[in-house]
Amino acid sequence: MQIDGSLIAYLEDLSCLTLSEDEKNRLTGDLEEILGGMARLGELDTGNVPERSHPFDDVNAFREDETLPPFDRELILKNAPNRRGDVFVAPKTVE
Amino acid sequence: MLNMSALKLSDAVRAKKLGVAEAVRAYLDKAAGNGHNAFLTVDGERALARAGAVQARLDAGELLSPLAGVPIALKDNITTAGVRTTCASKMLGGYVPVYNATVVEKLERAGLVVMGKLNMDEFAMGGSSETGAFGPVRNPWDVSRVAGGSSGGSAAAVAGGEIPIALGSDTGGSIRQPCSFCGVTGIKPTYGSVSRYGLIAYASSLDQIGPVGQSVEDCAALLSVISGPDEKDSTCVTGKAFDFGRDIPEKLDGFVIGLPRNYFGGGIDGAVRQAVLAAAEELEDAGGRVEEFEMPLMDYVIPAYYIIACAEASSNLSRYDGLKYGYRSASANTLSEVYRLSRSEGFGLEVKRRIMLGSFVLSSGYYDAYYKKALQTRALIKDAYDGLFKRFDMILSPVAPTTAYRLNENVDDPMKMYMGDIYTVSVNLAGLPAVSLPCGFDGKGLPVGFQLIGEAFSEKKLAAAAMAYQRRTDWHTKRPAGGEAV
Amino acid sequence: MTWETVIGLEVHAELSTKSKIFCGCTTAFGGEPNTHVCPVCSGMPGVLPRLNRAVVEYAVRLGLALGCEITRYCKFDRKNYFYPDLPKAYQVSQLYSPICRDGRLDIEAGGQAKTVGIREIHMEEDAGKLIHDAQGTFMDFNRCGVPLLEIVSQPDFRSVGEVTAYLEKLREILLYLGVCDCKMQEGSLRADVNLSVRRPDGEFGVRTEMKNLNSFKAVGRAIEFERLRQIKVLESGGRITQETRRWDDEAGESFGMRSKENAQDYRYFPEPDLLPLRIGEDWLEQIRETIPELAHQKRERYVRDFGLSGFEATVLTGHKSLSDLFEAVSERCGYPLEAARLITGEIMRLMNVTNTLPEDLALDAGKLSALVSLMMEGKINRNAYKETAEAVFMSGADPEAYISEKGLLMVNDSDAVSEAAGAVIAANPDAAADYRAGKTKAFGFLMGQVMRKLGGTANPDAVKKILKNMLDN
Question: Over pLDDT 70: what percentage of chain A?
Fold first, then answer.
């Protein structure tokens, strides 16, 4: 698996990260080695083996349609790095 | 008192031979030193207040659990209302949750006293408790060495006598391996038997909270407190609550124990091989029948595990965006800067490495070759175990190929680090229970552990075998600097 | 050379469940910012989702109503992207196994019947609301986790007329099923439009997607704008780029979004925090039983069983409150035809003059059925019928009471009629002579005189018979 700068940049975008040059250099090597190891799965014949995303086969875990008492808004906003009144604040998303 | 098992401590408390506050104070003093950097937060005031409340309930004759009055500390990825919960990350350095994890509610109902929060690898990503933002955990047996991870703080605190019992979490071996490195006992419960509500997610389909303690008895007692269905966790609605009696079978007659021959080939330390095989003989002497077999798919468990874990992690950790809680970069102005700078400054390198890996294996063009393939491999591994448990009551295996290595020895070699999980990750992929037990020491005087792996929800059978083992051996009672448990 | 427009729709319907899809917060519209929010829907670390059973049942109900194949074993998937209105930075949705597939909706546009294919219906969670001003963007999570059904059509539309007919029919079905209140102004029904143009029977063109369409009118205008834009580009030798465009209803045009937002790689994967769904035969049947008769089914039944005209049937099923009233009235009086005529005629007229909306209609079916019966049993004539209907509509009058009070009961008593007829003949000898001389016109005049003498309440047939006899002999 050949990792180049543009792939690293693409993964940075998907991951919402901006790596330092040093980090980029280290991760380029690491990813190449690790993904190379992961590619070993290609050796396995998994033709029509079902994909297992859960350890077990349980199904249908439901809540009934009932409302719970409202949660204290102050607690919802308690850890907000930046709030104005009762809303969270982000930099403008539209110019 | 500091050497008492959790159950004995509770016995003393409930027999009024010892006050809850007295017990808590003793451990607060011990933890204050924090010589192993096992604690990230010690909340003495709150703990003493809780101690008072528990004492009152005991004095009022309220029937509490066999662990009532016992101080406990939690891995710092378990949410505690009003108490800082950091995941050992700068990202959550100042984060104070507004709700309690289900396990915390259960501990309080049972009358245990939460005394503090324990160090770990950042967001539980690592096998040495060195990736955290607040310094590495040191191994009580040799402070120049790692305690293992990611629940290194839990294992070190128990081994160092700083807490009688603790909670950790196990995603790919994160309870079992540090227990093995620190010479203590731990249980990785069946997936779905302990609620994950309030466990800050690393890999949702693999994570499981479990006990770390001085003996299987203590761990089993704690597991019966925290296990059971929870309407807040969809994956824990069929989970059963375990109730282990304190009765220990004398003999293991009829137990068939599988021994994976290929786990003992190249790559494993001689001392580890020796100690684990000796443990197998011990169980044979106890009446069990040991049969060797070839563990299938051994070369594929590490790739499958890291693909699935990193994929889920890359999504689970996307919520840390500097907008709602957690770290927000001071130098960020635009929205994209708030996202990218907060995350880049807030996360450590190992976390970034796994997020990048996860983004890759899920990205269009690579999904089928990596993620889909890993899910299919997971199915094969699960089927393989199902087959093995038709032949065996349990499987006995090493926990890690080595004993505790030196601090910084492997931090720059992620691949080597990942290979250290070779014996543990398949258990999580299949959702199985496993117990990790001390079984000796290497030439350097470092603890060695082994694990017993059972089929889903066979905790009681595993505990029985483990208890039998610990009745016949005293490895689990050894403490660093000669301090013996009683 | 002409162009053909090819349109596909993605309709988002907010479900009218009490609680959100994965937590116990209310789905009520509006509310103070962040007051309908809990740790789960605001994506705090460590929380887990719990699926609302009603969401699955609503989805299956709609799927059955649209003739879909129900996916018996399905899962939720995570759609990953960063945006401030999405607190977890992923939306729980369904990509790999939507709960409903391959349905159809029959519409009629421009006199043409047409079947529109439904590709799939999937369940997902709504995002929060962002408020923008000069200082920045403000995040209100009240709407986070409100359950949505996304109804994806096949690219079967060729005109705005077809699109509008489809949306109206779909809206009607959602309302009759009671799964969505369809208040577009509150955003509980939203549409995205996928549009391309091509030469007739040529290859499909490159399509663009227009989001943010909150009214049927906006949908129509956006389609017209985009159709012309694409044709202009193509005819000037340009090429259409596949992109997402945001419709600005004020400006009356759509704008392409930055390409970065277009080139999205959502990294969908199965949601590990939720278990898969298995929908068994029994459960499916239980849900099927909760499906009420839909408007188009009522329409067919009214024509088939009651002999109503297509027009009457359509008017009555145009709103649930009208069809409910009609069924209640005809049920009680047993004269469906006349009940339909009364509601589509006099009642609708009164609704218009008083600007009464169907949903506000508060009419006692008992009184209306009593009125219909009185008329059908010959107790009152048409004039009295109309007058009484108005009284019932305006003041909720009781028909019997009103009629006797106003003396509107029809006179069938032949003595009274003969007496009046005799008097009229005596008072109008010329007219009587004219009639006897064969001038049949005069009969109408005499007839009117008798009716007037009897105060308009007489049974015209009786008057005619008696007057004729007296004149002929």
Answer: 98
Which of C193, C221, C218 has its CA nearest to residue C207?
A: C193
Tokens representing residue C255 in the block: 């704008």
The residue count for chain B: 486
Output the six-digit token pair for B438.
């001390």
* Confidence label for B98 from pLDDT (cuts 50, 70 and 90): very high
Chains touching B (at least 3 CB pairs under 8 A) are A, C
Q: How far is B328 from chain C (nearest CA, A)?
A: 14
pLDDT of residue B486: 41
> What's the confidence (pLDDT) of residue C318?
84
B149 contacts B138 by C-beta, under 8 angstroms? no
Handedness of CA C141, C145, C146, C151 (dihedral sign): positive
Helix (H, G, I), strand (E, B) or coil at B453: strand
pLDDT digits (tens, 9 = 90+) for B322-361: 999 999 999 999 999 999 999 999 999 999 999 999 999 9
In contact, C451 and C443? CB cutoff 8 Å: no
Residue C185 pLDDT class (50, 70, 90 cuts): confident
Structural domains for chain C: 4-286 (no CATH), 295-406 (no CATH), 414-472 (1.10.10.410)
* Mean pLDDT, rounded, for C275-285: 97
User: DSSP E strands: which ranges in B119-161?
Assistant: 138-139, 142-146
Q: Give the C-alpha separation, C368 to C400, whole Å.
A: 11
Substitution target in B301, B336, B356, B386 with the highest count of A β-carbons within 10 Å is B356
Backbone φ and ψ for C78, nearest 5 degrees, come out as -95, 130
Best of C81, C267, C271, C277 to disrupt the B interface (most B CBs within 10 Å) is C267
Residue C471: the pLDDT is 85
The closest alpha carbon to C385, from C393, C376, C377, C375, belongs to: C375
Residue C356's Cβ-count burial label (10 Å; 0-12, 13-18, 19+) is middle
| DSSP alpha helix (H) spans, B44-100 | 44-59
Which residues of B are identified as catalytic?
A: 75, 150, 174
Q: What angle do CA B9, B14, B18 make, to 5 degrees?
A: 60
For the beta carbon of residue C232, count every other beta carbon within 10 angstroms: 10
What whole-number distance in Å separates Cα of residue C455 and Cα of residue C411?
9
Contacts with C148 (C-beta within 8 Å, 6 or more apart), sequence order: C12, C13, C14, C15, C123, C124, C125, C126
**Mean pLDDT to the nearest integer, B58-62:** 94
Instruction: Compute the nearest-CA separation of C266 from chain B (Å).
Output: 8
Cβ-count burial of B453 within 10 angstroms (0-12 exposed, 13-18 middle, 19+ buried)?
Answer: buried
* pTM score, whole prediction: 0.89
Residue A67 maps to a domain: no
Q: Is B143 helix (H, G, I), strand (E, B) or coil?
A: strand
CB-based contact C48 B233, cutoff 8 Å? yes
Is position A52 within any domain?
no
Does the residue A51 lie in any domain? no
**How many domains are there within chain A?**
1
Give CA–CA dist C6/B472, Å, rounded.
78
| Strand, helix or coil for residue B449 | strand
Token duo for residue C340? 């339909």
CATH topology for B6-252 is Amidase signature (AS) enzymes (3.90.1300)
Using N-to-C axis directions, what is the helix angle for C295-306 and C310-317, rounded to 10°?
140
Q: Does residue A33 lie within any of the structural domains?
A: yes
Structural domain boundaries, residue A25: 5-42
Say if residues B146 and B139 touch (Cβ distance below 8 Å): yes
Q: What is the pLDDT of residues C314-349, one digit of tens each?
A: 999 988 889 999 999 999 999 999 999 999 999 999
Name the pLDDT band for B247 (thresholds 50, 70, 90): low
What is the interface pTM, i.e. ipTM, of the complex? 0.96
Using DSSP, how many helices (H) and how many strands (E) does chain A show? 3, 3
Give the chain A residue nearest B330 (alpha carbons): A81
